[in-house]
Amino acid sequence: MEVDIGGLLAASGQRRPPRGDGGTWWWGASPAPPPRHSSNRCSSRLSVTREPGTPQPGRTWSHEQVSALDHPGIRKVAAALAEAGHPEAADGIRVLADAVRTAAEAAQAVDVPVGAIANSLLFAAVRGDEVAPLLVLTSGAHRADTDLLAGLAGADRIDRAKPDFVREHTSQVIGGVSPLGHPAPIQTFVDVDLEQYAVVWAAAGHPHAVFPTTCAGLVDLTGGTPAKVAR
Known about the structure:
Radius of gyration: 16 Å
Pfam families: tRNA_edit
Number of strands: 10
Number of domains: 1
InterPro entries: YbaK/aa-tRNA-synt-asso_dom_sf (IPR036754), YbaK/aa-tRNA-synth-assoc-dom (IPR007214)
Number of helices: 6
GO molecular function, one term: aminoacyl-tRNA deacylase activity
Strand content: 15-25%
Keywords: Aminoacyl-tRNA synthetase, Ligase
Protein name: YbaK/prolyl-tRNA synthetase associated region
Structural class: alpha/beta
CATH architecture: Alpha-Beta Complex
Helix content: 10-25%
Order of helices and strands: EEHHEHEEHEHEEEHE
CATH class: Alpha Beta
């Protein structure tokens, strides 16, 4: 089973969108994205009611050999969430039972609007002869605009990241790149459109795992900058 949560989609077979339309290999865009915010701020707080079937503190459960607390990638993200002062996000990690290949499918799996899915997109920011990772946490309701990102990041251009580049800078499974738990800090932009949702869901270090947080939580966890990432 393949569940693609955040980061680059493995073997998705999706057509590459034209340059400036957000690169390729991530959850599809909604035909009717939510209204833009005029402020580049995230100000919501997480309030999650744990649903049946989600892991409880101190317990593990698994789906097809994927354990929310025993899998090393998920465990690393859970530990990073707790260490960063977000134990409620660590406790709320969920392993999805069904394959999801689009933001819409992921949203259906956790019963939220598609815009409440926080896609983790790793790009390569090119500045002269230097290439650095750039992480963009964007709403599943639209695609990030690479020309806009280049201006925000002060880069000559923004390229899509190759799988080996993603692994080098995140040490995470392709299709399950999380906003945190990386070997070193990565420059990050957080989509302000996520601010309208009381809870957003992001990848938890494995293609089958997601965790609940907020727009403000993503900014705090990543040290990222709230920004408009789509036109």
